[in-house]
Amino acid sequence: MALLDGPPALRLDGAAGLARLADAGIPTGALAEPERSLAIEIAVDRDARGHMIVVASAGAEPTLRLSIDPLTGPMAHHGRRLAGSLGLEGAQAKAVADLVGRLYAFTLAEDAIALRVDPVEIDRAGALACRSAAFALDRMAAFRHPDWNDLSLETPGTSLEQQLMAAGAVGAEIDLDGDIAAVVSGAGLMMASLDILVARGGRVRLMVDMQGLPLQGAEGLAPLIEPAAALRPKVMFYGGRFNAPVTDGFARTVVGVHRKLGVESSVYVWVDGNKVPEAQTIFAEAGFTVCDTLEGALAQVVAAAAG
Amino acid sequence: MAILLNGATRAIIQGMTGKVGSAMAARFLAAGQPLVAGVTPGRGGMTVEGLPVFDSCHDAVAECGVDCSFVTVPAPFALDAVYEAVDAGIKVITLYIENVPVLDAVRLSRYARARGAWVLGPNSAGCASLGLANFSEMDERFLTAGRIGVVAKSGAMCMEAAHYLKHAGYGASTILSIGGDAVLGTYHGDALAMFEVDPDTDGVVMVGEIGGRSELHAAPVVAGMTKPVVGLVIGRHSPPGRQMGHAGAYQGAAEENFAVKTEALRKAGAWIANDITGVGEAMRRALGNA
Fold it and tell me: If we measure between CA atoms, which residue out of B238, B233, B237 comes closest to residue B278?
């Protein structure tokens, strides 16, 4: 029962989470004479392109996991199987099946990636009450939920990562004692570069994926370069293969930020693609070390950090 | 022949009157790609870069015989755009845009698969069958045509894999970015199955990453292939639970990590590269032993 531990997302739990359920007409609160306590999770199953519904007795291992086709949603037979796996019959089984359907509808309406209600109390007559709820909201769906602005949502990431996210980039702080910061073009290059740096013995403070910001010129780039450079790590690395003719503009922005902040880090650069000679000249004139290959650049970065 | 795109491909851009769409139209046309029209609801009758803009995909298909779409509409409109393209009979749809809601990605990918269409993405860099058709952000001037297929989530990894293949003396048949989001229209195993039956492909480089089970589901496909597969999973040193650039690149369940995925691919018979710079040499070894 750990589906909620996965995706970085906007999170809501505690009294606010429970209130959100109550607003949707889902029973919350406490029962006078509860007979059992259950747990129900509903989460996006990314590989099945659908949802997964998991049920358990509270505090116990799941009794059943069901994959739900988004083109149908949960059907009556799903409800019967889920309730049956919990050993419920009659009014209790019907109540749980009904609750699962309502929670599923709630996840769709709320753009929740994952939802957990735990515990859910049920009495002998089939009355239900959710005692606690937590869910992760898909921040990419925020445009259709203006009311989320009124919620106290927990945004994932460190303050620096949130600052980079606000700039339109993605940052990951790896090792607070690290002495290397890398700013690269592309999520894949972010991960691949980190792997190579660590495999060679480097200690990485920060990795940043610029996303599409190089296309936005200095106005878009500077807000992401500045917080990374302001860390003043021992060594900085800038890298990317630029399909668009923006490499020279990228170089000017990076050099401008370093001058503005007076950053004294050793800087290594690898760029490929369009307008590369112009960019390499700008970097070289700024005193940065321009490397011809990705692997060569990363090897020099690790060596410089160790030296 | 390659996969998904070929010499007979005729493509549209959905959202071609927008900033991204018009820029990509100019780029595709400058590179001589078979882009024939655009679609923007309410803008029918306009032209962009000399190409006609239609109000709907149905009109574009009827007038221009389109079979491929490159979608650049804003994320809130992605779901409707893909539904429309599928309903119009378009079979290859690249969702170039990012920030598509997860629920929309679930719906559009299931809808497309149920109707025999392939969606690349969301957040796909596109697809390039070199020398035939290239509807991607990958600049063909830096690529070499050949007989190795490439499939990766990341556009950057597509480019780097192609670069290191070229360094080892190999060109690419089709390069396929399946996208970096959590829920995708096409997974690694789907692409491998297509490459296996493509007569113009002799081997495949597959770059996976942490998060999700696409690579794990691809392992049985690798095991059943007659063509060699070079496998690489990136994100080995990414902190657990942290998103690494792609919306889908986070380690959720334990089996979504580097070690489990790499071992699954190794056991399935893939030739494992140590890092992205090693995929070309790994392919050389694989073909030498294939």
Answer: B233
Residue of B72, B104, B108, B276 to mutate for A, most A C-beta atoms under 10 A: B276
| B83 & B189 share domain | no
At residue B188, what is the residue type?
H
Q: Is residue B27 part of a domain?
A: yes
Using DSSP, state whether B79 is helix, strand or coil.
helix
**pLDDT at position A16:** 86
List of E strands, chain A: 10-12, 34-45, 50-57, 62-68, 112-123, 128-130, 133-137, 170-173, 180-184, 204-209, 235-242, 266-273, 289-291
Rounded to whole angstroms, the Cα distance separating B23 from A21 reads 45
**Boundary (domain end) residue, out of A117, A150, A183:** A150
Largest CA distance in chain A: 79
Residue with tokens 């060699």: B228
Can B246 be counted among the known catalytic residues?
Answer: yes
Contact A198 B236 (CB under 8 A): yes
Q: What is the pLDDT of residues B204-240, one digit of tens each?
A: 999 999 988 999 999 999 999 999 999 999 999 998 7
Would you call the peptide bond into A146 cis, given omega within 30 degrees of 0 as the criterion? no
Among B120, B153, B174, the domain-final residue is: B120
- Dig out the tokens for A268 from the structure: 């290594």
Burial class (CB in 10 A: 0-12, 13-18, 19+), B195: buried
Lowest mean pLDDT, pick from A182-196, A265-279, B121-135, B242-256: B242-256
Are residues A300 and A167 both part of a single domain? Answer: yes
Is B207 in contact with A199 (Cβ distance < 8 A)? no
A172–B250 C-beta distance less than 8 A: no
**Whole-angstrom distance, CA of residue A195 vs CA of residue A285:** 30
List the single residue in B101, B163, B253 with the smallest CB-CB distance to A138. Answer: B101
Question: Whole domain around residue B88: which residue ranges?
Answer: 11-120
Instruction: Identify whether residues A134 and A224 lie together within a single domain.
Output: no
Partners of residue A240 on adjacent β-strands = A271
Cα angle A54, A59, A65 (rounded to 5 degrees) comes to 15
> Nearest-CA distance from A97 to chain B in Å?
22
For all residues of chain A together, what is the average pLDDT? Answer: 92
More confident residue, A243 or A276: A276
Do B282 and B160 share a domain, yes or no? yes
Q: Is B131 among the domain residues?
A: no
Give the ipTM: 0.93
The predicted-structure confidence for A156-195, as pLDDT tens digits, reads as follows: 788 999 999 999 999 999 999 999 999 999 999 999 999 9
